[in-house]
Amino acid sequence: MKSRIFLSVLSVILMFILVSEISFAGLLYPQREALRRMEWSLSDVEKKLNNGVDKKEAGYLLKTVNSIENRFKKARFPGDNERVKKVAKRIESAKARLEAIAGNNSSENTSSEKISNTNTQLTETAKTIKKGPKANSLANSSGSSKLLYPQREKLRRLEGTMKTVEEKLEKAKRQIESSDLLRAYPDPYVDETLKQMEERIKAGDLPMDNPQVKDLLKRIDAAKKMSAKLKEEAAPKISAFKKGVDIRNYPEFYNDLKRLAMWKKAYGSAVFGAGTPEQIKETIRLRKEADNIAAYVNKRTHEYKPLIVANTKEGHQYVVYQTQFAKHFRKFMAKETQFLNSALSRISSDVSMARKMIARAKKGRNVRFFDGGVKQFLTKAERELMLFEGLAGKDDPEVKKATLMVNQARAEAKEARKVLEKEILASNKPPADLYQGGDRKALLEKIRTQWKKNNPNDEILEIRIPYKEWRRKVGWSWNGADSSWEKYDRQYLQFAVVVKTNDEVATIYPAFINRDNLKGTERIVASHKSTYEIRKVLLKNL
Question: Span 410-428, mean pLDDT?
């Protein structure tokens, strides 16, 4: 039973092979192999078509069928072979179906006309199998404006390129209209693409009287005109960009970096509270100039925009400096707000503590309190008031309240000092003598000479320098008359001039040498009048 089944199956296979080989009759071995590969490829295409394809997939499959057709032509199969005829019909059918799906019909043909044209081309192709390569030409020898399949394919590709070019031009137009500066023309290859398209159209294989071809040429001409207009509009913006990235066009650039660095440091180190008188004056000055500084930085940032947009080395450098400055500037303004909101309560607290210390000093007749707690809290209140008044103005209601509190505490301390005058005098010490610079002797002589000139009757016992070095200030100040920033570089050194008052007591006066390093000038302050502390000491304590 099993042997009979096996023989039956074997006979069917042999019959299939025999029929298959008979269908190849008249074909050489290379032609048979080529035809088999074409059949396999067509089967794959037909399977996908039967399962359903979209327009994009149809376009890809159409390229595959075109490739099969080209190989079919080159193989020069004999026209009387039935299997060859079937392949030719399958190619014809597949192309017609795919072209209908892909929508490659020309403006003057309907889908049915297109399929008819395709059928005609394949019929002509089949004829060339018998007639030979001379008859295998798709050229429209009649001069008609209708396009053959290869011409339609070429036109389709050109129209696709044209659509891309038009999209690029629209994008370039938007970019040019919305930009003040342009690094370069947005798409420099558009003109070359249009030129190549025009050359391909006029190469001779497309009929110039065809409506689609005419329309494409009109679109190319319009695109060329649009490109020329856009280039004209872009030229000044490109020129402005090139000028904008040349650092030589910004003579103040490096000075501005120095200004930003100095302002960053100044605003970052500003003191809000009980700093030294110099620190408080600097904080007040910085606040008064804050609006001018902010306006100047904003103006410069706008001017340096080309450098920043182009991401040049200088542009990056400026952004770093400006960002760091802005960070400290914002913190300064926030600290000012916090100080102004709490200044009155802080001063009130300091005054309260100072008055408690005064009371304890009087009760215990302890003079150490005056150079300790009384001085500490009263000095803190006075300096906070100095800053409060400098920022809010002396007419501010809260500033007036704080001023009254500090004045009352100061008067109370003065009265207490009179009660303990002898004890205080006995405890006072002269300031330290710290400066040891090479010009020490010359500086002391300058102070001595100026003091004697201003105060000829004084007997100078000695002159001390309580600082180890000069105090220096470097920065930029706003010149309202010229609407510009002026750099300053100043330094000063304080002296203590000890003058004999009587046989037991000496008075210590402050004196100063102030220098302007940029102007090369020097001013000496040496007189009895001073806003700084003047103290008395016993001669035996010198």
Answer: 73
Residue 132 has pLDDT above 90, yes or no: no
Spatial CA neighbour of 436 closest among 461, 467, 409, 459: 467
What ranges make up the beta strands (E) of 346-444? none
CA distances from 159 to 67, 138, 300 (A): 22, 21, 49
Cα 247 to its chain centre, rounded Å, is: 18
Alpha-carbon radius of gyration of the chain: 50
Cα dihedral angle (397, 339, 378, 375), rounded to 10 degrees? -170
The amino acid occupying position 27 is L
* pLDDT digits 0-9 by tens, 5-60: 444 544 444 444 444 444 555 677 778 888 888 888 888 888 888 878 888 788 88
Distance, CA of 312 to CA of 247 (rounded, Å)? 10
CB atoms within 10 A of CB 172: 22
pLDDT at 110: 39
Residue 51: count other Cβ atoms within 10 Å of its Cβ: 7
Residue 305 corresponds to which tokens in the numbers above? 């925009």
Q: Across residues 297-318, what is the average pLDDT?
A: 88
Taking residue 276's Cβ as centre, other Cβ atoms within 10 Å add up to 11
Q: In the structure, what pLDDT confidence band is assigned to residue 205 with cuts at 50, 70 and 90?
A: confident
Compute the distance between CA of residue 229 and CA of residue 217 in angstroms, rounded to an integer.
Answer: 19
Among residues 173, 168, 206, the alpha carbon closest in space to that of 189 is found at: 168
Q: Which residue has the higher pLDDT, 359 or 219?
A: 219
Residue-wise DSSP of 251-266? TTHHHHHHHHHHHHHH
> Which residues are 514's β-sheet partners?
492, 523
| Structure-block tokens of residue 20 | 């298959």
H/E stretch holding 297:
helix 290-303
User: What's the distance, Cα to Cα, between the start and end of the chain in Å?
Assistant: 141
The per-residue pLDDT of the chain, averaged, comes to 80
- Residue recorded with tokens 């659509």: 163
Strand (E) or helix (H) holding 276: none
Q: What pLDDT, on a 0 to 100 scale, did the predictor assign at position 22?
A: 46
Strand pairing partners for 506?
A: 500, 537
Task: Write the CA distances from 292 to 356, 455, 487, integer angstroms.
Answer: 44, 43, 15
Report, as an integer, the average pLDDT of 400-406: 92
Q: How many helices (H) and strands (E) does the chain have?
A: 18, 6
Helix (H, G, I), strand (E, B) or coil at 535: strand
Residue 433 Cα to chain centre, angstroms: 54
* Percent of the chain whose pLDDT exceeds 90: 29
> Is-contact 272 387, C-beta < 8 A?
yes
Angle at 208 between CA 205 and CA 209, to 5 degrees: 130
